[in-house]
Amino acid sequence: MKLKHIEHIGIAVKDINESIKFYEDILGLKCYAIEEVADQKVKTAFFKLGDTKIELLESTDPEGPIGKFIEKKGEGVHHIAYAVEGIESALAVLEDKGIRLIDQKPRKGAEGLDIAFLHPKSTHGVLSELCEKK
Amino acid sequence: MKLKHIEHIGIAVKDINESIKFYEDILGLKCYAIEEVADQKVKTAFFKLGDTKIELLESTDPEGPIGKFIEKKGEGVHHIAYAVEGIESALAVLEDKGIRLIDQKPRKGAEGLDIAFLHPKSTHGVLSELCEKK
After folding, report:
1. Residue in A1, A6, A124 closest to B52 by CB
2. Burial code of B23-56, b = ≥16 C-beta within 10 A, e = fewer?
3. Mean pLDDT in consecutive groups of 10 residues from the start of chain A, 134 residues
4. How far apart are CA B95 and CA A111, in angstroms?
5. Which of A11, A118, B8, B99 has a 20 to 30 A CA-CA distance from B123?
6. What pLDDT, on the 0 to 100 scale, is given for residue B134?
7. pLDDT at position A110, please?
8. Where are the domains of chain B?
């Protein structure tokens, strides 16, 4: 499996508009897209820095994964996503090595990427995602 | 303030040797340095991916910041570090904008970088670090 770079860092926030202000006005980044991913019950905002994006995630439903994460751990980094070549074969290799997959096969995520999550119980506590732009 | 890229992602782990195995054997990265930072009561391991590093952090003391973090939140992403040009002036600008600084002026971190942390209460829950290689 060949990871290319860190595609994005997903950050769970309570109020996406307040957080966008921080990343724009304080850190000087530029939000280039806001997108709702109904499937994941989140509203997302994207910033680009080098070859990595910052993806802010606000829950649109307290019972969604981000709502539950914030209830348990508070705001903070929710996941790390790696850009990979050949996501299907990467998932097969990981499963062979005993990694617990949340997604057995890729599904569509934000920005039209093929994505799949690995379970944090298999990744030393960091919810990890593979992404591929096809 | 001009951020250049994400310098590293700091990840709190219970057992650095077990976690190194995950990043090497499963994700295919290569640990290129292990360093103890006595000041921070941590042992660190570094991996490079694109222009960003992954920094694993194992506490060498349960009362150190990583030990306390894991006790409270479990293993996971501890901080995000941004590469910046002109760290002293960046800190002055941030303080002017009302950001709470953990380090009023830069100090030496791992790999000889000048570093300073911003308080997560000012950064929407993400402990954030500025770094500069001088």
Report:
1. A6
2. beebbebebeeeeebeebbbbbbbbebbbbbbbb
3. 95 97 96 92 96 97 93 94 97 96 93 94 94 94
4. 35
5. A118
6. 86
7. 84
8. 2-132
- The residues, any chain, with a CB within 8 Å of residue A93's CB and separated by 6 or more, are A1
Query: CA-to-CA distance for B30 and B49, rounded, in angstroms?
Result: 9
Mutate to test the interface with A, among B73, B101, B124 (most CBs of A within 10 A): B124
pLDDT at residue B46, as a whole number: 97
CB-based contact A22:A31 (threshold 8 Å)? no
What gap in Å lies between CA B51 and CA A95, rounded to an integer?
28
ipTM of the complex: 0.94
Fold classified for A2-132: 2,3-Dihydroxybiphenyl 1,2-Dioxygenase; domain 1 (3.10.180)
Q: Does B89 touch chain A (CB under 8 A)?
A: no
Asked if A97's CB is within 8 angstroms of B25's CB, the reply is: yes
Taking 50 as the pLDDT cut, the residues of chain B under it are none
- Given B28, B75, B80, which is nearest A125 (Cβ)? B75
